[in-house]
Amino acid sequence: MERLELATRFRPIHIETLIVYPAPPERLQDYFYKAGVSREERSPGARAFFDALTGAPRGVETSSAAASEETLLSEFQRAGCFLTECSECPLEEAGVSTADLVGRLAPSVVRRARYSYKPKQILLLSNEITPLIPFLRQAGLGEKLLLRDGASIEIPAFKDPAAIVRFRTDVRAVLAKTRMPSSAGQKA
User: Fold this and answer.
1) Which of 15, 30, 170, 181 satisfies CB 3.0 to 4.6 Å to 119 for a cystine?
2) Residue ranges of domains in the chain, CATH in brackets
């Protein structure tokens, strides 16, 4: 319930980009929308994930050390980005295997995307949810999908610095493709 309250606090009124990933982390301190007082509250992997996503809409390479997590989440919200999960509970708690995830939760994810979130575009994170693509296309959301080479963007283990850079670059590149016309007009 706390995760839902935290996410709702940072949900944009109009969602530009809906970012979908399999499930929240088991530790509440690692949850994306749980703004920590200190960066050390998050595990290193959760910190890298947070930094990559909050920096992507702004095109920033640096970590969030210069700004509070609350500020970065507010900027993420102002950019029209919203991160949601297929499963609202950690997979360990929900008793849902990754293989079972799409079959059982895809109709709910599609329904939430179409009727509640109504995003302009949808970015899928993790190869585990790539099977959602046909469900989203069948529901008429295919033109909204932001894919990298026809697939979801893989979330790395975040132990390898090169993998972190690739993840940030991939997310930023996909988002940049969709923002070029509007950001070009704003700079002119």
Assistant:
1) 15
2) 2-187 (3.40.470.10)
